[in-house]
Amino acid sequence: MKCVFCEKPEIMERAIVKNRLAFAFLTNIPIVSGHTLVSPVRCVKKIDDLTSEEYQAIFDLVNKLKKVYEKLFGAEGFNCAWNEGEVAGQSVPHFHLHLLPRKKGDTGITEYDPRKFLYRPGSRKESTEEELKEIAQNVKNVLVQHTYE
Q1: Which of 90, 99, 118, 127 is 20 to 30 A from 40 in CA distance terms?
Q2: Residue of 35, 94, 96, 98 with catalytic role
């Protein structure tokens, strides 16, 4: 995958807000008005590749934009997500977070409704408490064996 964020200077020129380590710009294919991409200046593919300072810089911009979008668009809530890896839909190899201002009754510019992305009533099998406990214990066991920082 080529990185259009790095290859096209007009992407950085579209920045609506930036700091030393991160920038935010409006996507040219929005789901809703105000659909913004927030990205580190440095080209990294995954959130795990960010430094703690870059991570903080990105979320500083997210928090600033949320306040602006509440006033500007009347946002009552937000979708905040990213795709990591081609199998998850990542099409640009430069980490970026999608920030979508939402308000009651909006449907998005397309048929896609991000509010139903992670939860569609009746679309998924419900896990039993036993299954959840087993998975949770497996995660805890791995965390005890390894240090992830």
Answers
A1: 118
A2: 96
pLDDT at residue 112 greater than cutoff 70 = no
The model's pTM is 0.77
Instruction: Please give the Cα distance from 75 to 28 (Å, whole number).
Output: 20
Alpha helices by DSSP H, the chain: 4-7, 9-13, 52-72, 129-145
The answer to whether residue 96 is catalytic is yes
Domains, the chain, ordered by start: 4-146 (3.30.428.10)
Task: Give the type of residue at 59.
Answer: F
- Distance between CA atoms of residues 51 and 113, nearest Å: 32
β-sheet bridge partners, residue 80: 99
- The three-class DSSP label of residue 82 is coil
**Cβ–Cβ under 8 Å, residues 129 and 79:** no
Q: In DSSP terms, which residues pair with 40 in a beta bridge?
A: 22
Q: Which of 87, 115, 123 is nearest to 31 (CA)?
A: 115
Residue 94 has pLDDT above 70, yes or no: yes
Order of strands across the sheet that contains 22-26: 15-18, 22-26, 36-40, 97-102, 77-81
